[in-house]
Structures are given as C-alpha cells and as structure tokens.
Write a structure and sequence with these properties.
- This protein has two domains: about 5-60, no CATH class; about 70-200, Nucleotidyltransferase, domain 5.
- The N and C termini lie far apart (about 80 Å).
- It is α/β, with parallel strands linked by helices and about 260 residues long.
- β1 and β2 (about 90-95) form a beta hairpin.
- The protein is about 50% helix and about 10% strand.
Length: about 260
C-alpha cells in the first residue's frame, strides 16, 4: 500500500473530528516528514483545546447535576437582559437543559459575538427540555420600577415552561420565585442553564428591537438596541422620545414625545 502523501496526511488530520483525532494522531505520530509533523502538532493542539472546552462545560453543569442528584429533575436557568437600556423591554429567559447536554462554546451572552449567539440560540432551542422568553415593556417597567419589572419578566418566563421547573438557578440575587431557587453570582458564566438563558434573552430582545426599529426609525433601535449610546442620546435630543422609551430613566424624563 503506497505511503500517503504529506497533503493527504495533513487533510486526514485537519478534517478529523475530535473523537477521531487520537487515532489519527497515533497513526501519523512516527512520520518524520516535516509537513506531517507540523500537522500532527496542530492536531494535538486542537485536541488539547477540545479537552479543555469539555472540562469547562463539565464545570458549567456541576450545579445542575448536583441538583438533579438531589431529586430536582427540571432545573431552570433564568437570566435577563435590557435592564439598563433607555428603551425597549426588559427580557428574561428560562431554560431547562437535558442531562449530559454539552454545547461547545456555551458562555455568557456578553462574551459571544452576535453570529455565535445566534448559532447557539438555535442549538439551545433544539436540545432544551423546555424554554420560554418573556418581555416586560417599558411602560410597565416605568410603573413597577426596574427591579420589580425584571423579576416580573423572570416569573413570567418561568411560568411558561412545560414541563414546569421544580428548581431555578438565577444570576446574582435571590428573586423570590414560586419554586426553590439558587442564586449564583456570575451565574451566566458559571452555570450552563443560566448561560443558555442569557443567550436566548439577548437574541430575542435584539431581534425584537430590530423589528421595532422599522416603526421608530429615528432612534436606530436596530443598531443601539435601546441602550444609551452617544448616537441614541443625540436622537433623543433631536426627536424626543417614543413609546418604547422608559420615561422614568433620567435621559428620557421630561422629554417630549412625538407620539
């Protein structure tokens, strides 16, 4: 059997998935050709990165695994987005992930590029046991105050889960949800289901703000998503506010509306 060329060896190593890599590396480890040695080293580095990512994901799932071992079968991660925006809703998501779920790249939504958030959001929807997203609009946030509005969004998202969650993990402080809850500081970067919730909440709110921008083009919500960028503040100075703005927030307070 002829010896494979350097190009063939490099392709075999480059195209192997991580499950195949140990065998592919072993098969080429004694090849003395420089091009193959380089490809083997690159494959080893790729395998090391994969192992590190799997270990990180195992740590992300530790809390959920412990809660399931204690009899909590449907552990929901809950997170919110939009609390600090000047316009648009505060949005919360609740997600129950199945045991053994491992989504490569799962992380706090703020650590992810928009295209990667969108990809992961699709993967989360496909594998989740159940998930839900809830939006509490600006006028309700003005009436309730932002903390209560945030908790309201979380409660609504939780209530929409089918099957219902029997435990919730929240990012930060205890919310007072109608199921037992475990608050975790920086939960969106340390607990898998909370990270998943942060991604769904962010992707859904961004999509909503982009859709609403067509109705209120002067404020470019498709770009700023309602946050207080310099351009958004300039638009408020020039055009006043619209029904999506939070009148209880200082930059919008006392400002005239065009609607």
């Amino acid at each position: 059997m002829p010896t494979p060329s350097v190009a063939e060896c490099r392709a075999a190593l480059a195209h192997a998935d991580c499950a195949e890599l140990p065998d592919r590396i072993a098969a080429h480890a004694d090849d003395a050709r420089v091009g193959v040695r380089d490809a083997v080293e690159a494959a080893r580095r790729r395998l090391d990165r994969h192992k590190a990512e799997v270990a990180r994901l195992d740590r992300l799932h530790e809390l959920e695994d412990r809660l399931r071992a204690d009899g909590r079968m449907f552990v929901a991660g809950i997170d919110e987005v939009g609390r600090g925006a000047l316009a648009g809703p505060v949005t919360a998501a609740a997600v129950v992930l199945p045991p053994g779920a491992r989504l490569i790249g799962l992380h706090d939504s703020k650590r992810l590029a928009p295209h990667r958030r969108a990809q992961l959001a699709g993967e989360i929807r496909m594998i989740a046991v159940t998930y839900a997203v809830a939006h509490v609009p600006a006028h309700v946030a003005d009436a309730l105050g932002m903390t209560r509005a945030t908790y309201r969004a979380m409660e609504i998202a939780l209530s929409r889960l089918v099957p219902a969650a029997d435990h919730a993990v929240t990012d930060g402080l205890r919310v007072g949800l109608p199921v037992p809850e475990t608050p975790v500081v920086k939960g969106d970067s340390t607990v898998a289901a909370v990270a998943a919730a942060s991604i769904l909440a962010k992707v859904e709110r961004d999509r909503l703000m982009t859709d609403l921008s067509a109705h209120y083009p002067a404020w470019a919500f498709d770009v700023n998503k309602g946050y207080g960028t310099a351009e958004h503040l300039q638009a408020i100075a020039e055009h006043g506010v619209c029904p999506l703005h939070r009148r209880s927030f200082a930059p919008c307070r006392g400002t005239s509306t065009l609607f």
